[in-house]
Amino acid sequence: MMGAIVLTHRWLGIAFCLLFAMWFASGIVMHFVPFPSLTEAERFAGLVPVDRDGTRISVADAVAASGIADATRVRLIQRSDGPVYVVSGSAGSRAVRASDGGDASVTSADVALTIVQAYSRQRGLDAPRAAIVAQSDYDQWSVPNGFDRHRPLSRAALGDAPGTEVYVSSLTGEVVLDTTRSERAWNWAGSVLHWIYPTILRSSWALWDGVVWTLSLLAMIAALLGAVLGIVRVKMRGRQLSSPYRGWHALHHIIGLVATVFVLTWIFSGWLSMDHGRLFSRGQLTPAEAGVVNAAPDWRDASSLDPQPISPLAREVEWFAFNGHVYRRDRVGLGRQALIRAGDAPRDGPAPYLDRQEIGDLTARLGAGCAAPFLLAGNDDYPAQSALPGAPVYRTTCGDLWFDVDAADGKVLQRLDPSRRVYRWLYSALHTLDFPILLAHARLRDALIVGLCTLGLMFSITGIVIGWRRLRAWLAA
């Protein structure tokens, strides 16, 4: 039995020692330089006030023109070529012109470039030689599934000192991603390596998922067998523990014993990052719950909001369905909005957010025995945060089932059943050390992550040396 463990660990270690080293080193980079994305602050900063005079069709007409039968959200934004409605449903999004309801998708490189130039001016980005350099479904930085509803994407290089590149959705004409030369360079050494994320593999989600899940599982088995061997081979010399090995083997043994708990929990939690519903729930609404939350409203109800004019400062106007009602929110700043509900008598001015009662009325329909919603604290063990800075998030507990709802736009941010709550600790807490006490002390968390990953890297390097010597001897035999 022990001989089988030794042989299995030996050859799995030879096969995966470089992968272990890559994961630990790239994990340090990822902690400080995340995968490129367009933050909500960046997206909103690129918007300009909506031209209300150019908006000639109603929300209901825009939904009808889009052809999206189950539309649940409609946004009005100002593009460089005029105001457009972006209509969204379960199948995707589509843009229609607010002037006449015509198709507002972006098929021309000239239109995409004009949108990029307007966005850059609004953001204060230097774009001396902006040009569309590619139009494609996938490249290294646009492979995540979240961009599926925007493909193909037009990629523009601004020609500025930071090497900024901006991506425009062909379906909505919105800027959906930007990257800089520094981000791209660091991510080659970070996320691309860590997630095994080359475009050719990641563009097929199912293939990438299967490959990385399998590799992570085999790596975890190798680490577990190594831990068993490391503990079994410890020798007692008097009152001291010692290793029977010498040289690199001894170093591998000793560092492995010191790092055993971290290596095992980190590799295990990394494997769980690829779970995707295999062992734990995915935290998604069930079809029945989604039917309640995403029920398409009668968009003609939105006309009752017309007497309350859109703020002239609004950079984005959104109509959304929540608990059978249509709401409109005028976003006048990143953290400032006005929210009104169709059919309501005029209140003492628009409210900024959905209130506790409105959220409770919806969540009471999602589960049995639901308690009244309560405001989620910033240091909660199961954190959820609105995209709108400072906006409240309310949690409703329905027995063992929890729902977190964003009071800014009515979205369900989390569905936490017991399985998902366990997953939060086994994956997030173990892999990124986002324990509440460490989140409150960011520098201590940084030091722990860097220190532990460095220890894991040193351990991996000893394995590389031993593996190379073993492989060389085997090949020479």
From TrEMBL:
This is PepSY domain-containing protein. It comes from Bradyrhizobium yuanmingense. The keyword Metal-binding does not apply. InterPro entries: PepSY-ass_TM. Pfam families: PepSY_TM. The chain crosses the membrane at residues 12-33, 211-231, 251-272, 448-468. Keywords: Membrane, Transmembrane, Transmembrane helix. The keyword Transmembrane applies. It comes from the Bacteria.
